[in-house]
Each structure stands twice: as C-alpha cells, then as structure tokens.
Structure prediction request, 271 residues.
Amino acid sequence: MKLKTNVDADTGKQDLVITREFELPLELLFKAYEDPEIVEQWMGTKVLKLENKNHGSYQFETTAPKGDMVLKMNGVIHEFSPNKRITRTFEMENAQFGVQLEFLEFEKLTDDTSKLTMHVIYKSGAQRDQVLQLPFTQGINMAHNRLQDIVSKLK
Amino acid sequence: MQSNSSIMKTRRDIFQAIADPTRRAILTLVALQAMTPGAIADSFDSSRQTISKHIQILTECELLEQEQSGREIYYHFNPNKMKEIAEWLLPFTKLWDDRFNKLEAIMKKHKPKKTE
Prediction:
C-alpha cells in the first residue's frame, strides 16, 4: 500500500519535515488535535492534560499493550492558533532523546481536503537520527525484553 | 533502551558515508559517469590522499564499486545501496502514516456534538 505521509530528513541536518494531505475539511483535521478524546483515539495514548492556549502545556501517557511499561510524554504549547498553527515542544520522559521543537501548520486545500506540515527540530543531528531509528529499536527492544523475561525466570 | 548503544556503534555504514560533503560530491560525480581515482581527485582541491581515503570509505560502504578496465580502475556508483537510505526512513514514515490514517478514519465518522 502506498503511504500518504511523507518524511523529509536531509542527511546531516537536525530537523525533519512530515507532511500529509487529509481527505478532511481543515476544521475536522484541527479538531483531531484539539479534542482530548479524539487525540486519545488516534494517538493511542491517554491524555492527562491538554491546555489548548498560548503558554499552555500537555501531558500524555501510554501503557504498552503487553506488560506494565508506561511511556510518559509532555510538552509546552508556545502558540495555539485554531485551524492554523500549533507550536509546541515534545519530550519523552525517562528517555535520552531530549526535547524537540514542533511547528504544526494546518492548511485548507479545498472544502473537503486539508494539509498538515510538521516541522520538527532536534538538539542535534545525532539525536534526530536516533529518534528516526526508534521504530526499529522498539522492535529490537521488545525482543530483548522478552529475552530478559525468559532469562530472569530461569534464575 | 540499552540496546541503542550497540546500534549507534555500527561504523562505516552508508549514513556515515554520506554525512560528509566531499563524499557526497564524489558520489554525485561518479553517479554521472564511472571515473578513475585520478580523475576523481583532479575534480577536488583536496590532496590525492584525502580523496583516496574518501573513496575507500565509499567503497567499504558499497556505495562505490571498483571495476578493472585494462590498467585502470574505474569507480561505479551503486544505486541499490542508496535505496537503503530511503528504506531506513520507512518504519518512521509508516508509524506516522498509520496514525494519520487512523485520525482520518475517526474524523470521517465524526459527527459534531454541537451544531453552529
């Protein structure tokens, strides 16, 4: 299946751009970022706090489907302009990925379509590359954890 | 997350190879036509030794391939290896694509609670 999402990550740079066109009116696309209940559904995370305003903050919590690993994410919202822009930071707690700065731009294409551009900036190119490898590493980590479980039971 | 370090330690991978601007320039040149090491070096201000080191790294990473032609060695560009870079981004792109597909599906069914 062809992916509708595009990720641009130039070599040696410390940022990346994620773009996606939606078959949704701009207002509905923005609502998916604004409404905590909807955020919970598509992000697969619990929303502990979501202050949609300039100088607000947010807190998400995800429990891994298997096991008791809890992932906590948080950030501050620098700018919140409905149907236009969200500027915020993002940080995964207890991880070595540091803080990233996110510029989310929401654009109307037609009455029924819209576009999201996410410009993400990391502290360094190395940090960005580490995050980009995360979907890989997660798989590897899961295998490792599994192994650890089995090994610890042998003791 | 401990296993990260072992992954980051992997040296001489294609990402390291293309992180250097001179090596990217070499790749661009050789992608246009196969070249001898001498011809590559002549295209740069750096010393022959420096360029030769860059070529060596690119060859170790299989981005360049050697071919003996008579008494000369020619370097060819290996486009298949470049594909690995695009493939590297794929899991990350897939992750976001899945999320956004979900968002789209949810919002298509979404009925506003309050009208006006």
Chain B touches chain A at residues 1-4, 7-8, 15, 18-19, 24, 85, 88-89, 91-97, 99-104, 106-108, 110 (CB under 8 Å). The longest strand of chain B covers residues 64-69. Helices of chain B lie at 4-9, 14-18, 21-32, 37-42, 48-60, 79-109. DSSP finds six helices and two strands in chain B.
